[in-house]
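Hey, I was hoping to borrow your eyes for a little while. There's a protein on my desk that I can't quite get my head around. The fold is given in discrete form, as structure tokens running alongside the sequence. I'd be grateful if you could look everything over and explain what you see. Here's the protein in full, and shout if anything looks odd to you:
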Amino acid sequence: LLTRDGGCTPAWAPSGRTIFFVRYRARSEYAATSCGAIFRVGAGGGRARRVTAGYAARPRFTRSHEDPAVSPDGRRLAFTDNIACGEGGTSYFRLRVIDVNGRPMRDLAKLRQTFHIERRDPSWAPDGRRLVYQVQRGSELGILNRDGSGERRLVKEGNSPSWSADGHWIAFTRPAGRDDRLLVVRPDGSGIHALAHGARDD
């Protein structure tokens, strides 16, 4: 047991010594929506330390920080920032990058983030120079440089992108009836093909 107060969507630091995770809190016991903040804890356990304000930001329970992804050099943390979390708010998801201690960075500075394009669920390229992510509009996948430049659509429909360790492929899922298909695509958008579809537990 690493932490006594629960956690979701864990992400390892490359060193293997630290785990980042999301802790959710509801606005009230009657609230339908919970808002998250990102914490870190040593792999050996102990007290978790908050990295992002999330639901504790002012005004309280209007932000949610989710989907942590640690850069390959272990210095940066990309995540989803929902700036209108909770009851009565219209969710709006954008990408953010900070250092692993919670301090702001200039990464993504060239990216124009608006309410019309929502981005979430980032995954780093192995060299740390690019990010792939989900675009809420139409569930597309997008890709851009770490400074926010060069944004383009990778595939028309996809979820949960994950970059391969050698940098040659990006795996993702795509809904197909009651199941999800597992596919891969090259970072330039070529070579897309399915690996698995509707696999059963054997």
Observations:
- The chain has a mean pLDDT of 87.
- DSSP finds no helices and 15 strands in the chain.
- The longest strand covers residues 18-26.
